Amino acid sequence: MSVRSSMIWIINLLRLKLNDEGVTTLDPDQYYTGDSIKLTCEYADLWGSPVEPISPSVNIWDPNGILVVDGAMPNEPGVIGLRHYVYQIPEIGPEGVWRVEFTGRIDNNVCRYPMEFEVVTSKRIWTDEELQNLLDLHRIHIRREMLSKSADGKTYYSKYTMLEDDITIWDLITSSARMITPTSSNLVDGTFTFDINQNRNYYLDGKSYNIHNTMAECMEQLAMDSGRARIWERGGVKYTQYDYFEMAKYHRSLAGVRSTKLIKTYN
Asked: How far apart are CA 36 and CA 12, in angstroms?
C-alpha cells in the first residue's frame, strides 16, 4: 500500500503536531526516507502557455543511477498541461540526489522536464504509511452534506474539519448534480469561499479525519513501545508510561471538539 496523495498534507500536519519532524531542518527539495513526494510538471508551448501533452510519462533514477520508475503515466488533475506523480521513497533510501524527468510530445516535438530532489535518512518515529493507517481508523465518509452559508452567500461551511483534498462540491443532491469549484478552500476548518454571492445551497462529498483520536492512538503506542518512547523524548524530558496514557486521555477528551485551535503540540 502507498500513501494517498490527497491526504499527504494531513499526515504532515499530524506529524507536526506530534513533534515528529526529526532533528534536521529540511530544504524545500529535501525529503526523508519513507516520504511520499508529489512531483508536479507543467507542460507548456514555446510561448509559455499551458498545453496538453501527448503520451506524457515520468522516469525516476536513484542516486546510483538505477532507473526505479520507468515510463509511468502521471495523474491528470483536470488542469490544462498539469500532471502529478506520487512517489514513495523506500525506507532504505538510498540517501543522495534523485533525478526525475517528465516527458511528452508537444507540437510533434519530444519535450523533457528534468528536476531533482535529495533524500536524507529519516529521524522520524512513524512512517507516512503508519500515520495513514492510524488516520484511517478515524475516517468519516461524507456524502452530500448540505453546507451552511454566510449572510452574503460567499462563504460556505462544513461541520467537518481535516478534509482530504479530493473533496467535491455539488449544486444538487441528485445524480444530475453539477460539480462546483470554489475560489478558495480551507481544508483544515472546512470553509469554502466564492468571489460573488452564490444564492443557493451546495453539498459536500469527501473524507474527514479526527486528528485528536489519531494523536491519542500515537500516545498509546508510545506507552506500549519503550523503543519508540525513548526516541520521542523531547527537550531532555523523560516521560513515563503513565504520562503517555494521560496524554492519550487528554486527546480522547477533545475528540469531539471541532475547533482545531485546541490541538496541543508537544515540544
From this structure: 10
User: Among residues 180, 204, 184, which one has the least CA distance to residue 194?
Assistant: 184
**Minimal CA–CA distance to 3: which of 39, 34, 27?**
34
Amino acid at 254: L
CATH superfamily of 24-120: Macroglobulin (MG2) domain (2.60.40.1930)
According to DSSP, the residues that pair with 32 across neighbouring strands are 120
**Start-end ranges of CATH 2.60.40.1930 in the chain?**
24-120
CB-side exposure of 56: number of CA atoms within 13 Å? Answer: 21
Whole-prediction pTM: 0.64
Q: Mean pLDDT by 10-residue block, N- to C-terminus, for the chain (267 residues)?
A: 81 86 65 85 91 95 96 88 91 90 92 92 81 93 94 94 93 92 93 94 95 93 84 74 92 69 44
H-helix segments, 165-210:
none
Burial (CB count <10 Å: 0-12, 13-18, 19+), residue 265: exposed
C-alpha dihedral, 44 to 116 to 71 to 107, nearest 10° = 20
Which of 182, 138, 135, 131 has the alpha carbon at shortest distance from 156?
A: 182
